[in-house]
Amino acid sequence: MKRSLLFSLVLLAFIGLACQQEKSVSDSVSEKSENSAEEIVAIVIHGGAGVMSRDRMSEEKQKEYIAKLDEAISKGHSILRDGGTAMEAVQRTINILEDSPLFNAGKGAVFNHEGYNELDASIMDGQTLNAGAVAGITNVKNPINLAYEVMANSDHVLLSGSGAQEFAKTRNIEMVDTSYFATPSRLEALKRAQNKTALLNWEDKKFGTVGCVALDKDGNIVAGTSTGGMTNKRWNRIGDSPIIGAGTYANNATCGVSSTGWGEYFIRLAVAHDISAQMLYKNTSLQEAAEDVILKKLPEIGGDGGIVALDKDGNISMVFNTPGMFRASIDKNGEKTIKIFK
Length: 342
Ligand code: ASP
What we know:
The structure is a single chain. The protein is an alpha+beta fold. It has a single domain (40-341), classed as 4-Layer Sandwich (Glutamine Phosphoribosylpyrophosphate, subunit 1, domain 1), CATH 3.60.20.30. The chain is built from 9 helices and 12 strands. It has helices spanning 2-38, 59-81, 86-99, 143-153, 161-170, 184-194, 263-269, 271-282, 286-300, and strands at residues 42-50, 119-125, 131-137, 158-160, 210-215, 221-227, 248-250, 255-261, 305-311, 316-320, 324-330, 336-341. The strands form 2 sheets. The protein has an 8-stranded mixed β-sheet with strand order 4-3-2-6-5-1-11-12. Strands 7-8-9-10 form a 4-stranded antiparallel β-sheet. β3, α4 (143-153) and β4 (158-160) form a beta-alpha-beta unit. α2 runs antiparallel to α3 and α3 packs antiparallel against α4. It is globular and about 55 Å long. The structure holds aspartic acid. The site of aspartic acid has 15 residues, from β8.
């Protein structure tokens, strides 16, 4: 009798333990599947807006641009998909575009009036609203990386010129000779811009700035922009790209935006911040806000260009009022889009 009681107790304890274990396994499975359902990632990039049209750009050139956009967007997405941060994805994606002579950022940047390249960049973290930017730098290989250092390791938001470069030396940032940025086609473009009678081609009328906005699995949005500015710019002109709120903006509560176009107009309209503010104050969708700013307000004051953006739910917008914009995205369903023309 005693023995059978003991046996029953042991059996009950064993069954209880087994049930407990099964419960904890199934809890963690359902938690995991809930998480992965919530874990959306998305990324969007641009390589500048402008008057490019199919008949003016050779097929070979189109293929070159598409291949580079593909390489950049795929790199950024793989970082996000592997659990990396949006901060990492934006920088590494922009680095690929900065290193390509096809775009007006890093190598291949446009020339200023004096015949050298002055670079601007900015980055913003939508979780903390921290931001970093650099303007008018001439020796930093990847300006977006220095913008990140300003954000992460200085008390400031925007550093310029020689001071920014002094700071770069303290942060182990890769420096290059000014000649690294120079490319023959941009030099030709400068000569055409300075010779008032020269015939301008499509490349002269395109903004080749690069930008990226990413949403990571933790719901953090980061936006970044990098540029050489505008051909023949003078007097240490600074455009919208390093201006937080104009060329770049990110807020986890709304969206992230990177701009490309005639910078003076983007600064005057605080384009990137206006899109976020409309979402916050008027509860409009990202697409509606972007169309209002880029298709209505910008042309009204004579500006042209476009933006790429994504919102906190991973919806993507690529809006421009020029004939084309180099752009690519991988949305929350993993679907890839790469386009140049309308
Ligand atoms: N927005 C840049 C600037 O004005 C130019 C560009 O988008 O290419 O400096």
